[in-house]
Here is the input.
Amino acid sequence: MAQLDLRQKLAILADAAKYDASCSSSGTTRRNSAGGKGIGSTEGMGICHAYAPDGRCISLLKILLTNSCVFDCHYCINRKSSNVRRARFTPDEVVTLTLDFYRRNYIEGLFLSSGIIRSPNYTMEQIVRVAQSLREEHDFRGYIHLKTIPDADPELVHQAGLFADRVSINVELPTVAGLTRLAPEKSVPRIEGAMRDVRTAIEDLGDARKRYKAAPKFAPAGQSTQMIVGADAATDGDIIQRASGLYGRFNLRRVYYSAFSPIPDASAVLPLRRPPLMREHRLYQSDWLMRFYDYRASEVADAADPATGMLPLDIDPKLAWALRFRDRFPVDVNRAPREALLRVPGLGIKAVDAILATRRWRRLRLADVARLTASIAKVRPFLVAEDWRPVALADRADLRPLVAPKREQLELFAA
Ligand code: SF4
Here is the structure.
């Protein structure tokens, strides 16, 4: 590996980390001031955003320890056979960078992942050494998110949880067949075994802290995972069912969905094109329905096209479900329970809570609901109010085009 200075390593290893979606940065158009014009850039990598357990948005230095890897996962730009420039930080360099960036107020924490160097245990030791040094030698109190390596010794993964706020283990692909084909050195039982160990430790040490104040904290911001979408043949229905199973079995805080992006010198077993980004968005909306709107995974999957198992891209999954199950509507805003109101397309949690609070004092009219939603045209066919009943509207065969968002005219020269 060529000798690189810290800045060169940072450029390579921050760029390599961008493929991990386990933070909440969002994409935008590419702009920069490299030609001396203007100020700022949307292209730089290295700092991402995440949400702390109390809801604050925090900025994290997001890097890999190294982009060298002894594994050869087909979808990964860092795989052994990939022809990319390699770099590797020492644990001390990551500690120094984190502290320097923190003191300059660029970041509030660290997101650290890595390719596998030599062996899973060796790599995990290096990752733990970074977190241990930050916490114990420098009394670093910022946020730390560590990617853990499922094949590493469980004791090392446990140590990671003692220093990190959040740990994550990527399941990578939604199906066993997909993982076997695209990441043959990884194994679902080993990945799930590591997730189970983390769940057990979070719960055990959480219980211990309720009884003994001195008991150590273990990953207080929980564990999360990431699935790549569109690299294998898994349908949206498969992905939703898999995510639901992971939430239930491992008590995950988040499942992140990352649309597969074609990489240079890609393996022939990968698709040539990335899936539409809207597919990733629809999966996040489905995830939201399961976590906050009490939909079961099978219900969200029912919103998908039965022939393809894919969610529609032109409408959100909540509207797709409502159009498929028209017999569940209209819902009376003055009488229906909270669960039924949450199923009405266009009504969010805040709107439903406002309806429930208001109707304790008076009956709601359509205009009252209109003030709580962005589009009363979308909501109207699905509800009954004091002065409104969607007599003809609810049964119309052509309801979908009436409530679907209007297609935006694409700009000819848009990026
Ligand atoms: S183990 Fe991780 S870094 Fe290595 S090739 Fe597979 S996905 Fe990439």
Notes: The beta strands are 47-51, 57-64, 109-113, 143-147, 166-168, 223-229, 254-259, 331-332, 383-384. The longest strand covers residues 57-64. Residues 24-29 have pLDDT under 50 and may be disordered. Residues 325-403 form one domain.
